[in-house]
């Protein structure tokens, strides 16, 4: 009996850590379709994709890749606070998932299960979950607002850092049998130097190019810590501040544009 109790306590302690480790990705206002949105290179890695809407009819989207037979894992969540938790289901953003074979699934809200995320100290509600054997290729996720609201779409379950491609770095039609990587797009230092302000902030870190613009306002260390990286090779600065910090590295990976060409 004592062993059972100890095991249960250990599981209770371990579970929240795993659930809280989803790598955050924010869909920007100009990413209005799945084709224009971020591409999660490996959809088995855990991501928390956040989409905030200010009005009815606003659209956003993203994509993720799976190999044939890999696990498809997707959940729809909202923060357990007003206004989202006060909205009826038919007022929450609609999510349509399009599989590589073209078949579409409109998520139905089948639950309101409470979930506490300890890292961000945030209470969420699960509204819908999909778990199935995946097809090989790219899944498109298109979200349409029906009023002002914000949602989180959780994808994958492997708690390791993953690559996110945006803009020119994201291939539109990847092969179902091959997962694209950040090496598929090469960016120059001249391009990085041109994006050297808070309005458009690119930086080189360890040979990769990142668009840090949206991180400026949300960085816990303050705006200046990111702005100082704009338009330069910020490898040494980032390493001195965040070396060995997997949370910071995971956050950084969500802004990946591609490889720096020399």
Write up this protein.
Residues 184-261 form the Cytochrome b5 heme-binding domain. Belongs to the cytochrome b5 family. InterPro entries: Cyt_B5-like_heme/steroid-bd, Cyt_B5-like_heme/steroid_sf, Cytochrome_b5. Keywords: Heme, Iron, Metal-binding. It is built from five helices and 17 strands. It has helices at 2-19, 189-194, 223-227, 235-242, 246-253, and strands spanning 23-26, 39-40, 47-53, 59-66, 71-79, 94-98, 104-106, 113-117, 122-133, 137-144, 149-155, 164-165, 186-187, 196-197, 200-205, 208-211, 256-260. 33% of the residues are buried.
Short description:
With 262 residues, this protein is α+β, with helices and mostly antiparallel strands.
Write the layout of secondary structure elements.
Layout: H1 2-19, E1 23-26, E2 39-40, E3 47-53, E4 59-66, E5 71-79, E6 94-98, E7 104-106, E8 113-117, E9 122-133, E10 137-144, E11 149-155, E12 164-165, E13 186-187, H2 189-194, E14 196-197, E15 200-205, E16 208-211, H3 223-227, H4 235-242, H5 246-253, E17 256-260
Parallel strand pairs: 1-3, 2-4, 13-17
Antiparallel strand pairs: 2-12, 3-11, 4-10, 5-9, 5-11, 6-7, 6-10, 8-9, 14-15, 15-16, 16-17
Helix/strand order, N-terminal first: HEEEEEEEEEEEEEHEEEHHHE
CATH fold type of the largest domain: Jelly Rolls
Task: Summarize the biggest pleated sheet.
Answer: 6 strands, mixed
DSSP summary, beta strand count: 17
How much helical structure, as a percent, in the residues? 10-25%
Quaternary structure classification: single chain
CATH class membership of the largest domain: Mainly Beta
> What is the global morphology?
globular
Give me the Rg, rounded: 19 Å
Count of individual domains: 2
Low-confidence stretches are 1-20, 172-184
Global mean pLDDT: 83
What is the tally of helical segments? 5
Structural category: alpha+beta
How do the strands of the widest beta sheet line up side by side? 1-3-11-5-9-8
End-to-end Cα distance: 62 Å
CATH architecture assignment name of the largest domain: Sandwich
Strand content: 25-35%
